[in-house]
Write a structure and sequence with these properties.
This protein is mainly α. It is built from six helices and two strands; from the N terminus they run ααβααβαα. Helix 2 runs antiparallel to helix 6, helix 3 packs antiparallel against helix 4 and helix 5 runs antiparallel to helix 6.
Amino acid sequence: MPDFRNQLLAAEPPDAARARQLEQEIATMWSQKLTKAQRVYWMLSFTAAALLAVPAGIVSALYMPDGWMRAIWWLFTASNVAMAIFAWHVLRRGSFSLRQGLSMGKISSGLTFAIAMLLVVRAIANPNMEAIAFAIFGLLWFLLATSVNLWNRIIEAETKTREQFLQLELRLLEKSNKS
């Protein structure tokens, strides 16, 4: 086993510059500076979420006599407010935190599930074509949100694996510098 370690060290001798590069890459892998295109995306996300939250709040407060639909519209309003706050936070920082984005994806999936279940329960309580159509629509949105959440989990696993490999390489460099 020590022979393999010596072969690795011989292939790439310890280098302080490489160690600094690894430390910097590990520190920045979970946070990305926004490019110009990403800034535009987050500005549009903020605008869309804010523009959807205002009328949704008005509709849920004033025009929804049905308790089920009022709850659904309030959840829709809350999710848009949360998205607007998150987009504003990303724009203000000028960088996107992958960990925070993954957390928001999980919250979004949970809110979508809550809305879909309210639509399904509403359709069961009062079965008519409109209620069934809304329930199917809600379930399709939940399927989409779950698919995006699954994709995010894959990205998270890849990033964690990359981080662990970089930390391992950094530890090997530190140990080789000590010996």
